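Assess this one:
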Amino acid sequence: MLYFRFPGEEPQSLKGNFVLTESVENHRFVVSNFNQEFNYFWSEEAIASQTEQATPFCIDHSAYIVQAEQLIKDLNRGIAEKIVLSRIKKSEQTISDPFHLYEQLLLNYPNALVYYFHDTILGTWIGATPEVLLERQPNHWRTMALAGTKPTANERDFTFKEYNEHAMVTEFIEGQLRQIPGSQLQLSEVQAYSSGPVTHLLQELTWQMPDRVLPLLLKHLHPTPAVAGLPKKVAQQYISAAESHERKLYTGIIGRATEGAQKLFVNLRCGSVVGQHLYCYVGGGFTPDSVAELEWEETENKSQTLLRLL
């Protein structure tokens, strides 16, 4: 079963299973992995084929700090401007009814794409992601630069590191979109955007473009520096070598791509259910100014989007 709700819409449910596809276009609900190597669409006619779900690898605090400190050294040597390092956190509480958590996410995150599915290929996943990757509106396309994170309960100003991290994301997206002739790109003011336990810096970008360009847009914009880094290829190579776990659907694409109603999100604030535990996928953007322990704390805060509702 698949349960989902787009912001401003009513919750929906569908029977079926995910099916592998070459393109996310023209499907009612789609997901992909981080690198867009695998794309799936939900089919109500799909035949289930059972796949055993492996327990995700969870790095401990001391090993993460060692890894993070090495990454900061590498960034100060100039290998990249930014690299996003992720990890997986296992819930201390058991989860007997994921659907109940889905209902709690619906209530607590009205501005997020909230979903829960059990699929025999991909397993059981649940999440509430706030980040729009691409949205087709009547007269324009829309995306958002969402980066820089602080605890919502902390009233401090955003730091230089956080503003710099956000600026990298905005400049990357802007640079990609300005290559489109006649796009008439417009940027909103930078604002704070609260997503439960954490608050981000947000800037919306809108532009004009023909309808039939979704694959090209996805190729240029995803993964963004908010989930990979800069330069993009260097960051992806570093992530592949450094992370001991598979990101799977985390930081992939999720949403719908039917003609005239494309609304795709970056799959953040999500987790998989294996056995009776929830495994939350979280990450943080590293720059040369990062502090390893603070990055660990940021991932702890992000995991509370789901864990605090158990």
In short: DSSP finds six helices and 18 strands in the chain. The two ends are 21 Å apart (CA to CA). The domain at 2-307 is CATH 3.60.120.10 (Anthranilate synthase). The chain has a mean pLDDT of 93.
